[in-house]
Amino acid sequence: MLLHGSDALKKVAAAGHALPGFVAYNLETIQGITAAAEAADRPVLIQAGSSPFKHAGRDALMRLALDAAGHSVAQLGVHLDHSRDLDEITACLEAGYTSVMVDGSHLPFAENIALTKEAARRARDHGAWVEAELGALPGDEDVSTDAVAQTAAMTDPRQAAEFVAATGIDALAVAVGNVHGFTKDPVHLDLERLAAIHEAVPVPLVLHGASGLPVEELHGALARGVAKVNVNAELRRAYLDAVRATLPSALPGSDVVSVWAAGRNAVRDTALEIIGRLIPHSQGNA
Ligand code: 13P
Description:
The chain has an eight-stranded parallel β-barrel, surrounded by eight helices. It contains eleven helices and eight strands. It is α/β, with parallel strands linked by helices. Helix 7 (157-167) packs parallel to helix 8. It has one domain (7-283): Aldolase class I (TIM Barrel). The two termini are 22 Å apart. Helix 5 links the parallel strand 3 (76-83) and strand 4 (99-102). The longest helix is centred in the C-terminal third of the chain and has 22 residues, at 256-277. The structure holds 1,3-dihydroxyacetonephosphate (13P).
């Protein structure tokens, strides 16, 4: 069923857990993410777009994600990730997306506020919630580039408070040392900065770039206001590893379905494992 509203986000924030936001590119990744949410019986966000639209086509991917979420027994939000385009945001809201991320992080502060404010207004008109970003995250959304975090681009707690107050967003994505994609060296988050942002803003925080993040860093973030965690590269790697392992038996008979199924099942298993990672051990399964 479709997970409407930001209550689930607030609930996990209060419990010190996080909602996973899993990036989906195609039918198989949507099926894998949906199956993981069903197996875990936990709310999950399918992040269908914006950059995956380049592969699947916007209307096709929107329909696949909304259909899968709407027909599942699990609670699934359908979320637009990293959009800079108000027309794209409106199209997703009109189609029934339950949340959108407007990404004005590349813009000067005042322009980021203006873009984010307008996206938040449109989201509210459609009963959806909105995430925005302040500070810049290194790396690429679709390919691991081994990027490193830059202190200069990190989120400033005081600016974050002003940004949230001026825009009326429901969740704030932060740059605190997190990086999109896998990195050569382990990522260390600036947890002090994260705690200061958490103290300064009244909304749940979002951690992008969680693939490969050491679990103690992740749990440190959950203890400091992070209530949504985005994962992409780990699912991509799981999909590709499964495809590689299946190819030798699939190639002789051109059995492409067995390759797609292996990719789908690997996404399911990895997503399920990540959902478990987002519940700190000390809290059991509460
Ligand atoms: P990773 O690819 O590092 O998991 O980041 C995903 C992400 O933040 C999507 O917005």
